[in-house]
Amino acid sequence: MSKKLDRVKAQLEDERDEIKRLAEVTKEDRKPVELDQAQVGRLSRMDAMQVQEMALEQERRREIELQKIEAALIRIEEGEYGYCTRCGEVIWPKRLNFDPATPLCVDCAGS
Questions:
Q1: pTM of the prediction?
Q2: pLDDT by residue (tens digit) across 3-33?
Q3: Cβ-contact 83, 96 below 8 angstroms
Q4: How far apart are the C-alpha atoms of 25 and 85, rounded to whole Å?
Q5: Rounded alpha-carbon distances, angstroms, from residue 92 to 8, 12, 59
Q6: DSSP assignment of 52-86, as one string?
């Protein structure tokens, strides 16, 4: 494996680890909101529900990014990294520099 691919792999692994760390840190925010009115007022429950919804959406986005990163790491191991998964053409290096986990070339991503 080339030094450039080693750097990309390390970057992707770091991103994966950070996403997993953030998922762990925000775990409490994603728990169901307690609806017991004796413990929490109406506005506090609404705030808690809003925080929960935002945390769930962030987690959904993190999961999508994790899947992209894992797929990119597999492509690196299989020698397929840098090639579009749809058409097989080379993905521009600038595009990979911007998002090392991207699976598609510009043309396929736009269609």
A1: 0.78
A2: 999 999 999 999 999 999 988 888 777 777 6
A3: no
A4: 33
A5: 15, 18, 29
A6: HHHHHHHHHHHHHHHHHHHHHHHHHHHT-TTB-TT
